[in-house]
Write a structure and sequence with these properties.
The complex is a heterodimer of chains A (293) and B (328).
Chain A (H helix, E strand, L loop, with lengths): L1 H5 L3 H40 L5 H5 L13 H31 L4 H15 L2 H16 L4 H26 L2 H9 L4 H12 L1 H16 L26 H10 L3 H35 L5
Chain B lengths: L1 H10 L6 H5 L4 H29 L1 H7 L2 H4 L13 H32 L2 H16 L2 H28 L14 H26 L2 H9 L4 H12 L1 H17 L2 H6 L17 H8 L6 H41 L1
Helix pairs in contact in B: 3-15, 4-15, 6-9, 6-12, 6-14, 7-9, 8-9, 9-12, 10-11, 12-15, 14-15
The chains are: A mainly alpha (293), B mainly alpha (328).
Chain lengths: 293, 328
Amino acid sequence: MTPIALRSSPTRTRRRKATSAVMLTLTGLATAVAIVPLIWIIGYVVQTGLPALNADFFTQLPTPAGVSGGGIANALVGSLITVGIGIIIAAPIAVLTAFYAASHANSPLGLAVRFGTDVISGVPSIVMGIFAYALIVLPQRHFSALAGGVVLAFIMLPIIVRTTEEMIRLVPGTLREGSLALGAPEWKTSWRVILPAALNGVLTGLMLGIARAAGEAAPMLFTAFGNPFMNTDINQPIATLPHTIFVYAIAPYADWHAKAWATALVLIVLVLVLNVSARVLVAWRARKLGLSR
Amino acid sequence: MATQSHFAARGSFASVNRFTRAWQHGDRFYRLLLTLAALSVLALVIAIGYELWQSSALAREKFGLDFITTADWDPVAESFGALPFILGTLITAAIALVIAVPVGIGIAIFLAELAPDWLRQPVGFLIELLAAVPSVIYGLWGLFVFIPAFVKPVAQGLNGALGFLPLFEGPVFGPSRLAAGLLLAIMVLPTIASISRDVFRAIPNSQREASLALGATRWEMIWEVLVPYGLSGLLGAIILGLGRALGETVAVTMVIGNNLDLSASLLHPGYTMASIIANEFTEATYDLYLNALIEIGLILFVLTLIINLIARLLIWRVGRRTFTEARA
């Protein structure tokens, strides 16, 4: 810094101020540019998808290319089932892990767990898909909704762990100490005192996890595989919303493209609603605890 | 903690039988459960690596290191070399970073240092929403809207002005490495922006005040004081963005054109590691073929594992340094 001060002159100062102003404006511009694709994508999906949406779209099965009508009832049910399996597997493990990580923040295993969840969240979902394929599809010798649900569980796990852990840390230590001082065992303290206080965090984590899992197409290609018929058997291949979009989009038929956009609208509304409500929940919780960020 | 629950156990009277006391009123069981859950997360990481290693045995034994150094991918001749996919992944990720790093750090500076409070929250949320859009929707939009409306004109411009370079050689295709790289840039932007923003926010105010008091302009304060201070965290954010770009599958598969093109041109269609897996996995008709695809998955896993380890260590370092300095 010293050389600048020593060589200061009116022109130099003016130039430095100008540089500052230009660069600061550029950062604002970068922010504006980044929001353009978001609005473009959402706007285009709504505009193109909306005309193809009607009640039949939600209740009918897909029709072959060129046949009008038809819907995505199978994919809606399929997404519900696979994400449901994912939640059932991931939620209990994730919440327990979050409790462990929050209460053993500085122990070696605690650090390893936080590191491990970070690493899992960085593993590409297609690699998770291969893992589930080797784990479930190969031994069973057929694609299944179960395999799809297991992949989604792996994908949701780190999201739920991290959000829950953060919220557990926000619960004032006095609540926990009070409960222990009254003679409650550790598990009862966690279950009856800390968990209710951090419930928003768990819900937020679940919502973000569902939002992420509901949009995963890549690992579904060789786990759930897709299915043009209605299926509720978890041992059979099943269709999901993102996979349906993928199949319709890369097919060479214009009417399938229209259905891809309509399905994309359904999916994006679902994902955005989940994300916005998760955000609202966190903000509400933070305000309640008097933590304004 | 052990002492507290031990205390609780001692506080209750004779009605407690030996069993509940030995198990500390269920606390032993509870702690066992927590530890098991925590261990299962670590086991998952190891299991993924082990399973991919085992399931790619045929390809690893047959091709050895040639697998990553040869470019001959011909399932009919049972010959597999993954070089084109590795290069394709690296090229598209590089395009993405060249664009997303300056823009992402610019956004982070704007959100952390400049934006007024009423703007900070909503704009930050919009940037994060960009990360929430499912990748298949990016792919759909990329294929039918982004490529014809933006990528193709840009590609034609680049080819017209710089077509003499092998990098921008024609003919110009819509679906191309450039299209995949540009789409990836949008997709990794929120990762880089939001982590860098948190890094800037973690820098103590004393750094800002000291440099402003010495007469630095705001930009000099940001560029010459805050950026060097948070450099490891910013690097972490960039590397994490890189990790996301390497593993992205569906969106890339939809816009890259899926072609075993060996030219250097960014304007030609290509292939990435993730997109070859997505395209050919269910078509792999014999074991060696499947093993070769799983080995690509293994490479991708190891790559993202290393990248994530480095990134997390870098990001953690900023947090810890700030913490110790704040205490000092």
